[in-house]
Predict the structure.
Amino acid sequence: MLPVRHLLLALVVLLSRALPAQSAPVDLPLNYDGRHLYVTVTDEHLGALTLMLDTGFQHTTLAALIAEKGEVHTHFWERSLSYNGFGTGKPKRRYLTTDVSLRSGPAVLFSGSALVTDLGDLNETFGHAFDGFLGWDFFRKWCATLEYAPARLTLRDPAQCSAPSGAYASLRAEWTPQGLLLPAHLTFANGHTAAALLHLDTGSDITLLLNTRFRGPAGLDQKPSSAQESHGAGVNGGYTTDVLPIAKVDIDGQLQFAPGKDAMIAIAHAGAFTTVHWWEGPSAVKVNRDGVLGNALLDRFCWTFDPGAQRVYVVPAGAG
């Protein structure tokens, strides 16, 4: 048996490996292209990887062609999984994982199990080659400040998180295992209003994408409708929406803006969002219930995510 002091030392070493915290902030340059964010990281076995920064993706995920350079694991009890996301295709995939230790220089950004899947033609769809998604399971462990101009992600120990200096909005948020949800109040062009709980999704290039339950308040149940039909692509395949203007978006009573007549939002047709199973829990149902905020809105601001306080601090882009 090891002496007690050796056991304590071993425990300290294991804990230090498990925690994501770094003694100094980590600055990650991002490539903001086509209203998607990309970051380059390295893994000891897989080499350099270009990953989409995607808070809307629950799990960090690698393309099968990349993951197969290492060891891919199957799981006896979990044979398949369903992705929460856009698209009317079959959401079930084989449940495959690989172990990764993603780094930027000496800093360990994410260490653990990543999902493995076939990305299909998403590289072509988005017009940018990438190897997978750096998901919410990475993001939620850090105090993270996301800037779009210049595109940069700064990571800090959550214990060192603080609000920005100067004027800022402090937003309430629901920090769920599936994603970050912000309370909002929407005013449509026809004057009708509705409350919503919106999923903050840095993997989406749109301003605002709402689920089908908002078709009535937006006037889409009236014929003829002035909305234009549009088609998009998500992790579960293609989907169809109607595109129309919105008068005002109010997030938590702290952040209000009127996008203007040329700023359009999309409201999904039936089936555009994946329906989660009841056993995934109430927070999973909330993620897909109302809709998402995408980069066409998010890039107007600088966002700091404080997991300890469960707050999001927001300042206009360029204000700092």
In short: Residues 4-18 form the longest helix (15 residues). The CA atoms of residues 33 and 140 lie 23 Å apart. The chain has six helices and 25 strands. The two ends are 56 Å apart (CA to CA).
